[in-house]
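Task: sequence design from structure.
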C-alpha cells in the first residue's frame, strides 16, 4: 500500500502556517522600515534569530518529545504553555526592537504583541482559527504598508479558511471569527 499524500487543504495550511507567514511579514516589515539597504539583511537576520527561529526550534522539540500532540496544538490543555513561550519570545523581540529605536518596526512589534495578547485571551475560552487570524493580520498590514495594489493577497485568506475547515481543524464560524478578530485589530490599532 502506497503512503497517502496529504490532501490539498493540508498543503495550503502548511504553506500559510503562522511561522511562514510571520517570517515573510517580518522580512517585509524590515524592508519597509527605512533601515538602509545594506543593513536590512542583518536586522532581519537578528529579528528572525530572536523570534521565529527559537519558536520553530522549541515547537519542533515539543512535538518530538510529545509535549504537544500535533503541529496545530489541537488539544486545548497544551495551548497555555505554548502561548506562554510565544509571549516570552514576543516580549524579548519587542525589547530588542525598542533598543534599536526604529519606529516602524516598533509599531509592527506593538501591533503583533497586542494581537497576540488578544488571541491568547480568546483561546483560553474559545477556539478561533489562529492560522486565519494571523494571515488576515499579515495581509492587512501588508496592504497598509504597500498599498492596495497588493489587494490580490486578500484571496489567500478565504483559501486558508477553506483549508482549515476542509481539514476539519475548524468550523466555518471559527475561521470567520479569526478573520474578524484580526480585521478589528488592523482597523483600530495598525
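Answer:
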Amino acid at each position: 500500500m502506497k503512503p497517502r499524500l496529504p490532501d490539498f487543504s493540508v498543503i495550503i495550511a502548511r504553506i500559510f502556517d503562522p511561522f511562514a507567514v510571520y517570517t515573510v511579514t517580518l522580512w517585509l516589515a524590515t524592508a519597509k522600515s527605512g533601515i538602509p539597504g545594506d543593513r536590512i539583511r542583518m536586522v532581519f537576520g537578528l529579528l528572525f534569530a530572536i523570534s521565529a527561529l527559537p519558536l520553530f526550534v522549541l515547537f519542533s522539540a515539543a512535538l518530538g518529545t510529545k509535549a504537544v500532540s500535533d503541529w496545530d496544538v489541537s488539544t486545548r490543555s497544551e495551548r497555555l504553555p505554548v502561548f506562554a513561550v510565544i509571549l516570552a519570545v514576543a516580549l524579548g523581540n519587542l525589547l530588542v526592537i525598542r533598543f534599536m529605536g526604529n519606529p516602524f518596526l516598533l509599531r509592527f512589534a506593538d501591533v503583533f504583541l497586542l494581537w497576540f495578547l488578544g488571541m491568547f485571551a480568546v483561546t483560553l475560552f474559545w477556539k478561533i482559527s489562529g492560522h486565519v487570524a494571523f494571515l488576515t493580520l499579515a495581509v492587512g498590514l501588508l496592504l497598509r504598508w504597500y498599498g492596495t495594489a497588493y489587494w490580490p493577497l486578500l484571496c489567500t485568506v478565504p483559501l486558508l479558511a477553506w483549508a482549515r475547515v476542509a481539514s476539519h481543524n475548524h468550523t466555518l464560524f471559527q475561521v470567520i471569527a479569526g478573520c474578524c478578530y484580526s480585521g478589528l485589530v488592523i482597523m483600530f490599532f495598525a
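The chain has one domain: 12-189.
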